[in-house]
Design brief:
Blueprint lengths: L1 H17 L8 H13 L9 H11 L4 H12 L1 E3 L2 E5 H11 L1 H4 L7 H11 L7 E2 L1 H9 L7 H11 L10
Antiparallel strand pairs: 1-2, 2-3
């Protein structure tokens, strides 16, 4: 938790320098509190870096494709020339990501994660998949992660303005 706190402090200090006035001075503190509530409910003082990264990626303002690629990079394992994501790694990713909606009471059962992992590997004979198969599955908007593209679309429309007059 202490290391993540230091990284968040540095991250938001840079953000305030690059975009003055757009990052709350307490953003690092608020973000750390959110991560602790999601991943350290028992107060051990330990949060997996990969879990925290998954949440930060999911909550970032980046495009969906960029988020999906980043998830793959954090959870995939190298296999010769390519990286692959295993069923176990996919389960970990889905479990980590589902802590985000769980913090607002929208939890998913472990069986949801299992069903989603099964759907991703449907028709796959190997124990791991390549990035393109992973991205294709995410683009199909699996139910377990439907909140992610929904939140993205909502945030993307916040800045839309229409030059129309109402009568």
């Amino acid at each position: 938790v202490q290391q993540i706190s230091e990284m968040l402090t540095e991250l938001f200090q840079r953000a305030r320098l690059e975009k003055p006035g757009q990052a709350d001075p307490r953003a690092a503190e608020f973000t750390l509190s959110l991560l602790v509530a999601m991943y350290d409910r028992s107060g051990t003082g330990y949060i997996k870096t990969r879990s925290a990264a998954a949440a930060l990626i999911a909550l970032s303002g980046d495009t969906l494709l960029a988020k999906y690629r980043a998830f793959f990079q954090f959870y995939a394992v190298p296999d010769g020339k390519a990286a692959l994501i295993t069923r176990s790694a996919l389960r970990s990713l889905l479990t980590d990501l589902n802590q985000v909606p769980a913090i607002v009471g929208e939890s998913c059962t472990p069986s949801c994660v299992e069903i989603a992992a099964h759907s991703c590997f449907h028709g796959v004979l190997n124990s791991a998949i390549v990035e393109e198969k992973f991205l294709s599955w995410l683009r199909s908007e699996p139910a377990v992660l439907l909140w992610l593209p929904t939140c993205y679309r909502l945030s993307a429309t916040e800045m839309v303005s229409h030059q129309a007059r109402c009568r």
